[in-house]
Known about the structure:
By secondary structure, this protein is of the alpha+beta class. The chain has one domain: 2-Layer Sandwich (Translation Initiation Factor IF3). It has two helices and four strands. The chain has helices at residues 18-30, 47-58; strands at 9-14, 37-42, 61-66, 69-73. A four-stranded mixed sheet has the order 1-2-4-3, covered by helices on one side. It is globular. It starts with 8 loop residues before the first strand and ends with a strand.
Amino acid sequence: MSARIEADEVWDAGDMGCGELVLELRNRLGRMQPGQVLCLIARDPGAPSDVPAWCRLTGHTLASEEHPVYHIRRKET
């Protein structure tokens, strides 16, 4: 059993597609402090591949993923 991750903010993106999703992710994480965690709920069928890829490209940490719930830790600046 994995440890529960406490989120600083929760965002339900519904079935928002990849383009809109990553733009809003950038905006939301940009307003958060380094090390804070965003709990993203994304039901889009592409999210299981898009969210981890976006995290790798941007340097944010994907702390957990269990579609449709993703915990993303904001990178240090």
